[in-house]
Design brief:
This protein is mostly helical. It is built from ten helices and no strands.
Length: about 220
């Protein structure tokens, strides 16, 4: 339960301190879990306070800095602040670019693509999706692939390519079957694709011949 997890994490943080680098790393992980629990409870200000206190109180290595930026990006996204979310995830991407962690880098680009899609910035979403496409050849889990295919489906739906969007929607439904809370973009893409199909059917029905014999050129009615 989020409340129980929050209490345990808060107690651990209070007892741990950050006297050593090892303790600082453990403190960061606990703070991250605590921020997620607080976010799940809707206590966004407290979640931000936990992360910012950890950031200010420890000397972080690059991977730990990535964790902080990613957590702050997630929190800003939940707060409805896409610009702040993108600012934090860009910082994480810059740090990840200097590592060999291709999987986390692709995930970061995928997160950025999601934020841009919700803001209806299709060109930027496509740019990040191109960089996230490596998830299909990396050790990505089903949720990563489901999120990737949901985003790609939404882009194709926005571009009017309903056939490709439908195929990606099918993949995403299979990959996110056990993660209903992560299907927001998927259902958005499906709704757009179905609406486009209905419009197409109406257009074709309006273009059917009326049954009247056409007039010949040069002849009066």
């Amino acid at each position: 339960m989020p409340t129980r997890r929050r209490r345990c994490s808060r107690t651990a943080l209070d007892e741990l301190g950050s006297q050593t680098p090892e303790a600082g790393g453990i403190r960061l992980r606990i703070a991250t879990y605590l921020s997620y629990a607080l976010t799940d409870l809707g206590q966004l200000e407290r979640a931000r306070s936990v992360l910012e206190d950890t950031d200010a109180g420890a000397a972080l290595d690059p991977h730990e800095q990535v964790t902080i930026h990613w957590s702050l990006a997630r929190l800003a996204y939940m707060e409805g602040q896409p610009r702040a979310a993108l600012r934090e995830i860009r910082r994480a991407i810059i740090l990840l670019d200097h590592t060999e962690d291709s999987l986390e880098l692709a995930r970061a680009h995928l997160f950025a693509a999601e934020v841009h899609l919700w803001a209806d910035n299709i060109p930027e979403a496509e740019r990040h999706l191109a960089l996230a496409a490596g998830l299909e050849s990396l050790a990505a889990d089903a949720r990563d692939l489901g999120a990737l295919h949901s985003c790609q489906a939404l882009v194709h739906a926005r571009r009017g390519d309903s056939e490709r969007a439908r195929l990606l929607i099918q993949y995403a439904h299979e990959e996110l079957a056990d993660a209903p809370a992560e299907q927001g973009l998927l259902w958005f893409a499906q709704a757009l694709t179905e609406a486009a199909s209905r419009r197409s059917r109406r257009s074709h029905s309006q273009l059917r011949p009326s049954g009247r014999r056409p007039r010949r050129l040069g002849h009066a009615a």
